From TrEMBL:
Main location: cytoplasm
EC top class named in words: oxidoreductase
Gene3D superfamilies: 2,3-Dihydroxybiphenyl 1,2-Dioxygenase, domain 1 (3.10.180.10)
Essential cofactor(s): Fe cation
Similarity comment text for this entry: Belongs to the 4HPPD family.
GO biological process: L-phenylalanine catabolic process; L-tyrosine catabolic process
Stored InterPro entries: 4OHPhenylPyrv_dOase, 4OHPhenylPyrv_dOase_C, 4OHPhenylPyrv_dOase_N, Glyas_Bleomycin-R_OHBP_Dase, Glyas_Fos-R_dOase_dom, VOC_core
Spans annotated as Disordered: 34-59
Keyword Iron tagged: yes
Annotated metabolic or biological route of this protein: Amino-acid degradation; L-phenylalanine degradation; acetoacetate and fumarate from L-phenylalanine: step 3/6; Cofactor biosynthesis; prenylquinone biosynthesis
Protein's recorded name: 4-hydroxyphenylpyruvate dioxygenase
Compartment(s): Cytoplasm
Length: 508
């Protein structure tokens, strides 16, 4: 596993703590949380339409035309074209209405202990935020407190208007906006608001991104007197790409995540199902080309893989997909678009409809032993918590598996894959084990993928042995099986919905 160590924070200018006025100005910038969003609006016919990506002055026409060629014709190359230093994923923030209960469900279901908190008990009257951590994977769950004057007065009893400024300054995540979070939850249900990257310099990454066409969401702000910094740009829909940089100044810190968060005591016995890091974060958009071009332009990320409906579809539905990657290919941002005109509506379109626009479809969580991780996750689910998994493929899948992976997996491992419903795929470099949960919220939108990558170990002079990013691919050989499972799941929902009016008619 490649470890990312923070470097010194190098701000091009001093960043004073954000004032209430500056926060209000930032929040007043256009940032819609309606069905129409920065990467997709809703026209009169109800179809999502993508706005063309903005480009920096003087950059028009410089962007190479994006054209899918498909998996078999795609030639992988790494131009190392990042526009700023990216060290890896830092965290993922979910916006919700009840951070306490959602975070506890994920904690129990994934074996992720609560590692830090910022809420009323720590002096934060704006939002409750709870950080779960397992290895290098960090999930942050945030929900707003009441912004009524009476509620604020219970913790900040200033009745002359200063309470608002004091409350804004006390927010641990300065970009958090209570009204925006409520609108987000109404529009999308449980969902990811921010995918955070650890960078050398958040202010510089923000400036470079905006200069190359990124739409700003929150300007650079110092945290903890300059111990860390945060900035955000729009990614797709109402999801933002968050930049985090942390000072490497010596001395002990009272926090391990970010300033404003208090560390919590580890549970005893330890809660750990073996999940180690975030492998990739997948977004769904109405149209792939403008969304991919937009992200490529301001990040410099390169194309890692492509898939078309011919590669990964079924006879009933399909999608197109592209994977964007950072220089070291350990930050992977796949994007999907729906295919129209098929027998069934694409699962991507189902997501877009229920999510009311573009958004983050799923998070792939990497384990060093996915079989052991799944046994613990299934045990948690059997106790009434945790997450349900998609139905397994038919037995013929595993008979064919032995012809494809017997040189890598033992008979015991292949038998366990069949028992647990794990899908197995491989590319020219390694093997991928993967399984998908059912949607984790009320809507058929966001879900989780649990994976293990085998092979692709690299030893370079002067650094520890590590695994190449994306080893084993993204499950191209399993897409059709996954889609069939999703199609059957959707058909079961449709059958139950169709039965309601029929039952009502018979009772009448």
């Amino acid at each position: 596993m490649l470890l990312f160590v923070p470097r010194p924070l190098l701000l091009p200018f001093p960043l004073p703590p954000p004032t209430a006025a500056s926060l209000r100005r930032a929040r007043s910038r256009p940032c819609s949380f309606k069905a129409s969003s920065s990467m997709g609006g809703v026209e009169g016919d109800g179809r999502h339409q993508v706005k063309p990506p903005q480009v920096a002055d003087g950059g028009a026409g410089e962007e190479e035309e994006f054209r899918l060629v498909g998996y078999s014709k795609f030639v992988r190359k790494n131009p190392r074209s990042d526009r700023f230093s990216v060290r890896g994923f830092h965290h993922v923030e979910f916006w919700c209405a009840d951070a306490t209960n959602v975070s506890r469900r994920f904690s129990f279901g994934l074996g992720m202990a609560i590692a830090a908190r910022s809420d009323l008990s720590t002096g934060n009257p704006v939002h409750a935020s709870y950080l779960l951590q397992s290895g290098d994977l960090r999930f942050l769950f945030s929900a707003p407190y009441s912004s009524s004057p009476a509620a604020i007065a219970t913790v900040l009893p200033d009745r002359e208007g200063f309470a608002e400024a004091a409350a804004a300054a006390a927010a641990a995540i300065p970009s958090f906006d209570s009204a925006a979070c409520r609108r987000f939850s109404n529009a999308h249900g449980l969902g990811v608001r921010a995918v955070a990257l650890l960078v050398d310099d958040a202010a510089s990454a923000f400036a470079i991104s905006v200069a190359n066409g990124a739409r700003p969401s929150f300007p650079p702000a110092a945290l903890g007197g300059g111990a860390a910094a945060i900035a955000e740009v729009e990614l797709y829909g109402d999801v933002v790409l968050r930049y985090i940089s942390v000072s490497a100044a010596t001395g002990s810190r009272p926090w391990s995540f970010l300033p404003g968060f208090e560390d919590t005591s580890p549970p005893s016995p330890a809660l750990d199902y073996g999940i180690k890091r975030l492998d990739h974060a997948v977004g769904n958009v109405p149209e792939l080309a403008p969304a991919a071009a937009y992200i490529r332009r301001f990040t410099g990320f390169h194309e890692f893989a492509e898939f078309t409906a011919e590669d990964v579809g079924t006879v009933e539905s399909g999608l197109n997909s592209v994977v964007l990657a950072s220089n070291d290919e350990n930050v992977l941002l796949p994007l999907n678009e729906p295919i129209h005109g098929t027998k069934r509506r694409s699962q991507i379109q189902t997501f877009l409809d229920h999510n009311e626009g573009p958004g983050l479809q799923h998070l792939a969580l990497s384990s060093g032993d996915v079989l052991a991780t799944l046994r613990k996750m299934r045990a948690a689910a059997a106790c009434g918590g945790g997450f349900e998994f998609m139905p397994p493929p038919p037995a013929t899948y595993y008979r064919n598996l032995r012809r494809r992976a017997a040189d890598v997996l033992t008979e015991e491992q292949m038998a366990a894959c069949e028992e647990l419903g794990v899908l197995v795929d491989r590319d020219d470099q390694g093997v991928l084990l993967q399984i998908f949960t059912k949607p984790v919220g009320d809507r058929p939108t966001i879900f989780l993928e649990i994976i293990q990558r085998i092979g692709c170990m690299v030893k370079e002079e002067g650094r520890k042995e590590y695994q190449k990013g994306g080893c084993g691919g993204f499950g191209k050989g399993n897409f059709s099986e996954l889609f069939k499972s999703i199609e059957e799941y959707e058909k079961s929902l449709e059958a139950k919905q169709a039965a309601i009016p029929a039952a009502a008619g018979s009772s009448a």
